[in-house]
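TASK: fixed-backbone design
INPUT:
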């Protein structure tokens, strides 16, 4: 008769799939919030008298908030648990979204978007830690890939909503209020998700952890690969862990800067290539967003069959080449522009998936959420600056130069991946989170 099964080796179940789906609500909301503001700015700019300065600030507000929320949300999550903020952050976003729809001045919208970003940023460490700690290792890459896909689903849904509301009376106000709908759906789905048993076990609350393991996985499943550790923020500044944070933060940064620019100012970028304005630009943005989403699907399976390290390296090679072509030939034909954007978007699924997977595999449970938050914060430093300066840079230097800068950023991600990317395929969290793990 076989003995008990370790949590890392169990089969996937409908309940575990539900945890993945509703924990992914934060990334969906980020994609939606960033996407919808790009559309809303088209109509709100003349109505609120928004100049280039305020356009940059409003575009970057939620990203600044993401930096703040991720920085502190992860630390708080490791101290008090994964579940307690699961509900409060969604209620906060509902209230703030309604407030956004009634603003009268640009500064009011900036402040509200800043707070919404902070709330979503705090949700990231919670959600990704929950998925990583509940999901068996065989399905971890697919589950984290689902998070990346959901981000793009959120952005695409935002563009669809924006398309239908663009010419409606007070359409931009309805756009900003519309995030209430997904918030309510996600909130209802999260109500029955329990605390992470790995986190409980790491805090010495073994009986609670075992009770949840029995409830979720069954009586023949054990959780015996965790150590009891007190969360100490100083731990992640040890060089072995700090270098991992820098690695994840940089590849996240180099994938996110061009992608955030495309989503935040997508209609302007599409227009700069001469591919139309207004609803025509939104359709073009929706098509590109669909390629971003589709790119996450092969990356889910390649991360397991091919490996994490070759996936991140070769996708950065392709992304760099695609943006370089757009930079060298800014007046290319319609099909060349679409092809390059599509190739970039499809390849982006590699680092796009791994930026969620790597930080949850490379750190132990007691600091996993803190590390995830800090890695995300590192990535958002660059995106904050870039998103703010992009409107002026695009106007002053043109689309060709803008695309070449994007290619250079992707090339940096390639260099860092070659130097530091580890291989974690098929390994348990208890091994990949060890300080002596090298992945080579």
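OUTPUT:
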């Amino acid at each position: 008769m076989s003995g008990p099964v370790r949590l890392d080796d169990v089969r996937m179940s409908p309940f575990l799939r539900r945890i993945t789906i509703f924990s992914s609500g934060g990334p969906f909301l980020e994609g939606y919030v960033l996407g919808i503001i790009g559309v809303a700015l088209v109509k709100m700019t003349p109505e609120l008298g928004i100049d280039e300065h305020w356009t940059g600030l409003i575009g970057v507000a939620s990203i600044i908030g993401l930096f703040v929320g991720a920085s502190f949300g992860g630390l708080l999550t490791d101290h008090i648990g994964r579940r307690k903020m699961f509900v409060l952050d969604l209620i906060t976003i509902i209230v703030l979204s309604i407030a956004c729809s009634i603003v009268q001045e640009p500064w009011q919208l900036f402040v509200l978007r800043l707070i919404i970003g902070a709330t979503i940023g705090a949700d990231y460490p919670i959600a990704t830690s929950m998925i990583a700690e509940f999901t068996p290792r065989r399905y971890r890459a697919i589950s984290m890939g689902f998070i990346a896909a959901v981000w793009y689903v959120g952005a695409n849904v935002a563009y669809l909503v924006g398309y239908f509301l663009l010419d409606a009376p007070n359409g931009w106000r309805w756009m900003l209020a519309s995030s209430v709908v997904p918030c309510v759906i996600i909130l209802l789905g999260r109500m029955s998700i329990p605390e992470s048993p790995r986190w409980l076990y790491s805090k010495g609350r073994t009986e609670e952890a075992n009770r949840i393991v029995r409830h979720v996985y069954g009586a023949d499943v054990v959780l015996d690969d965790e150590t009891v550790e007190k969360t100490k923020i100083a731990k992640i500044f040890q060089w072995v862990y700090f270098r991992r944070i820098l690695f994840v933060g940089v590849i996240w940064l180099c994938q996110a800067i061009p992608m955030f620019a495309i989503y935040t100012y997508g209609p302007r970028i599409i227009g700069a290539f001469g591919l139309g304005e207004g609803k025509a630009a939104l359709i073009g943005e929706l098509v590109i967003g669909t390629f971003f989403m589709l790119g996450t699907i092969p990356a889910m399976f390649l991360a397991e069959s091919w490996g994490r390290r070759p996936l991140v390296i070769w996708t950065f090679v392709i992304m760099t080449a695609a943006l370089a072509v757009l930079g060298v030939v800014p007046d290319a034909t319609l099909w060349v522009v679409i092809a390059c954007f599509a190739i970039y978007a499809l390849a982006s699924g590699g680092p796009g998936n791994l930026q969620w997977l790597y930080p949850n595999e490379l750190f132990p449970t007691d600091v996993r959420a803190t590390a995830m938050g800090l890695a995300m914060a590192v990535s958002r430093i660059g995106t904050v600056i870039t998103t703010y300066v992009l409107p002026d840079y695009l106007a002053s230097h043109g689309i060709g130069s803008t695309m070449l800068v994007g290619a250079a950023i992707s090339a940096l991600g390639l260099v860092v991946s070659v130097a530091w990317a580890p291989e974690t395929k098929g390994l348990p969290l208890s091994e990949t989170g060890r300080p002596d793990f090298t992945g080579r």
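COMMENT: The first helix runs from residue 14 to 23.
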